[in-house]
C-alpha cells in the first residue's frame, strides 16, 4: 500500500488478491519461501479489509495474530482460525 494507506476495504482486497496471485506463481516456480512471504501479506490485507469494513480504525500493524483477534471481536464464528497461530506463533510474526 502507498504511504498514505487507503481506508477503503476494496483497495485492500484488490491488493490482497494480487498477493495471492503472486503466491500461486511462486509456488508454480518452486519458490516456497517467497510464496510464504506473499501469503502472509495477503492474509494481513484480507484481515485489514474485513476490519475496515466493520469500522475498525486502520493501524500500522503486521501481527497476524493481533489482526485475527481484532477480527474475532466482529465475527467470533472464526475462532477456529486461531489454532494455527497457537502452534506456530513465533513463525508468523
Question: How are the elements arranged and paired?
Answer:
Blueprint lengths: L8 H20 L3 H22 L10 H11 L8 H6 L5
Helix pairs in contact: 1-2, 2-3
What is this entry, summarized?
The chain is mostly helical and 93 residues long. It has one domain (9-91).
- Tally of structural domains: 1
Give the CA-based shape.
globular
Residue stretches low in confidence (pLDDT < 50, at least 5 long) are: none
Helix content: 55-70%
C-alpha Rg (nearest Å): 14 Å
Number of strands: 0
From N to C, what is the helix and strand string? Answer: HHHH
Distance separating the two termini: 19 Å
Compute the number of helices: 4
The chain-level structural class is: mainly alpha
Mean of pLDDT: 88
| Proportion of beta-strand residues | under 5%
Oligomer: single chain
Described by strand count, sense and barrel closure, the largest sheet is: none
